[in-house]
Amino acid sequence: MYLRMTWVFILSMTSILDMTGCLPDKHLLSWLKPNPINILTLNASPYFDSDLPQKMVTNLGDTAFLKCKVINLRNRMVSWLKTDPLQIISSGLYTFIKDPRYSSEYMEEENTWVLKITKVEYEDSGMFDCQVNADPLMTYTVSLKVVKKDYRQFLNDAPQYAADPSVKILGGYEHLVKVGSVLNLTCVVTTPTSYNQMTRWLQNDRIVTPKTGVSLLSENTPHTSVSCLIIHRVQHRDAGSYVCAAGDMGHDMAVVGIIEELTPVKSFLTHHMLIPFIVLLSISSLIIVLGIISTLERNSEEADSCSRRKTDV
Q1: What does the alpha-carbon distance between residue 138 and residue 16 come to, in Å, rounded to a whole number?
Q2: Which residue has the higher pLDDT, 64 or 160?
Q3: Can you give the pTM of this predicted structure?
C-alpha cells in the first residue's frame, strides 16, 4: 500500500514537469524555493536586508514610507515602534496607535513591511524601530525627518536627527566680576556621538588645574558634557581670556574682567573723621539757628518802632 501511494505521488509530480525537467515555481514547497543566499531556509535565522534606506527625508504634508525587509521571517512577527517618545505603532498588520495617519502594510512581492504615514507633520520626525520577535530581539532603525519643500537643496551627508557638535561657554563672551566674589564659567559640549574626551580649561593659554580656591566640576551624558570652572574669591590675577577646549569637538572662549567693589558712602567717614564732622555740623546748625533768631528779633524791633511813631503822630 505504501509503495503504491509513493508511486502515485511520483506520477503526479512528473505530470507537471515542464519541458526543461523543472517544477513550476508555484508547485515548489515554500522551504525549497530559492532565497537571496541560495540555501534552504528551514532552520536559517532571520536577518534584515540592509540595502533599504535607513534615513528618510519627507516634505511637510507628503506621505512617508518607512520600509523594513526581513529574510527568513517564517512565523515571526514584525512590529513598528517610535523610540522618542516610546510608542508602539503596529504589530503585524494591526495598528495600535490612534492616529489614523499611521498604518502598517506588507508588500508580498518585495517581502517588505512598510510603515505608512500620510500628511506628515514636523512632530512625526524621529527614530522608528522595525522589530522582529526573535531571540534575541532584532531591531532595524529607520529615521524620518520632515522638512519644508525648499529644504532639500541644503541637504548633505551629515547624520540626521543628531545635534551638530558644539562647544559653548554660557553667559556670553564678556564676564565682569567684582573682586572677592565668585566666578563660575560653565561650558556645554554637545556631540551626536558618545563623548569620552576630557574638557580642558585654559587661562591666558595656560591649563587650569584644581587647587585651593579653584574647582573643576563635570557631568557627562551620552551626548552632552558639562564642565564648570569655579573661582571662589576672584582677584585681579584672575582676569584674562578663558578657553574651554573639547579636543576635536572644538573650543569656545570668554573674557573675564575684574572690577573694584563699589565703596558705600558711609565708608568715607572714618572713625577719626566722624567726631570732628559731628562737631562741625553742630556748630554750623547753631550758627544758622542764632542767625534766624537774630533776624526775627530785628524784625520785631523794627515793627515796634514803626508802631510808636504812628502813635506819636
Answers
A1: 40
A2: 64
A3: 0.37
